[in-house]
Amino acid sequence: MQITHYGVRGSIPAPGKDTVGFGGNTTCVEVVTSKGQRLIIDCGTGIRKLGLNLLKEKDIPEIPIFVTHVHWDHIQGLPFFLPIYMSRFKIRFLGAKESFGRLYSTLYDQMDGYVFPAKLQEVQSNINYQVVDDDEGFNLGQIHCDIIRNNHPVPTYGVKIHDNGKTFCFLTDNELKIDKPQTEYKRFVEFCGGADLLIHDAQYTEDDMEKTRGWGHSTFLEVIKLAEDAGVKSLGFHHHDPERNDRQLEQIIGEIKANTKIHIFGAREGEKLEI
Questions:
Q1: 270: which residues sit within 8 A by CB, 6+ positions away?
Q2: What is the per-residue pLDDT for 106?
Q3: Residue pair 20/246 in contact by the 8 Å Cβ criterion
Q4: Which residues does the UniProt record annotate as the domain Metallo-beta-lactamase (predicted)?
């Protein structure tokens, strides 16, 4: 299974010389399974570059896009995803049952001909929608994917992909330590149990949390504890704060590496990971 990060920044794009190392585009991840099935997770600004790469491929089957939630930084790149304008592409948007109504309406409202000049209902690609039940998940061919409700102000979901004996978990926009959780901490431990790779939102430091508790994001240390409790083999920090530059991220990650036996790293735009 190959995982490629096309956008790793949280909240708003953060381009510039101080963020070029980790990247400034908002959330978009591509997963390609051992059988060649593709899954795109989220449509942040990183999806523009992914779309350009897809134009170079021939005979692409249906492209499934799992949208974790409809906060703007996770859908704002869709109008610039060129495959939606071309008739040779089939695209399937997947969303959890709890959030599906707003997913459908928000994608259309974002491209209504007024907010953005092109209308989603008039694009040339063949677009379909799939509602995903929390307890059932969804399939990519013979590959099964599970989902879990995250702790975030709006319905938001993480995803787990099982492929050829390997497990990849992706949980963005998730606050692990919160007074009234949608999902209890132990459920996340179970969901991520034994994963070969966990990519998790770590937007904040412990000091940041004095001001941002309840915003729906986690700290580096909270995410490390989850990975340790779940027996995760490798942990990548994701959804980097737009105010955090490369030097600061490298310093934070470097300092905490000494305190855990788990392989940890900061997700970088353009990075390809194999598990």
A1: 4, 5, 6, 23
A2: 95
A3: yes
A4: 38-240
- Using the structure block, give the residue that is written with the tokens 């909240």: 11
Residue type, 109: D
> What pLDDT is attached to residue 48?
99
Instruction: Specify the CATH number for 2-274; select among 3.40.50.2300, 3.40.50.300, 3.40.50.2000, 3.60.15.10.
Output: 3.60.15.10
Q: What's the rounded Cα separation, in Å, for the pair 172 and 11?
A: 11
Looking at residue 40, its amino acid is I
Write out the two tokens for 104. 């459908």
- What proportions of the chain, in percent to the nearest 5, are helix, strand and coil? 25, 30, 45
Please name the residues in contact with 144: beta carbons below 8 A apart, sequence gap of 6 or more.
137, 138, 161, 162
pLDDT, residue 101, reads 84
- Give Cβ neighbours of residue 198 (< 8 Å, ≥ 6 apart): 168, 169, 170, 171, 192, 226, 227, 230, 232, 234, 235, 236
| Tokens, residue 21 | 């190392």
Instruction: Give backbone dihedrals phi and psi of 162, rounded to 5 degrees, phi first.
Output: -105, 125
Asked if 27 contacts 70 with a C-beta cutoff of 8 angstroms, the reply is no
The confidence score (pLDDT) of residue 142 equals 87
The amino acid occupying position 27 is T
The secondary element (H helix, E strand) that includes residue 6 is strand 2-7
What does pLDDT average to in each consecutive run of 10 residues of the chain (275 residues)?
99 98 99 96 99 95 96 98 98 94 92 96 96 95 95 98 97 96 98 99 96 96 98 99 98 95 98 98
Extents of the domains making up the chain: 2-274
Global confidence as pTM: 0.97
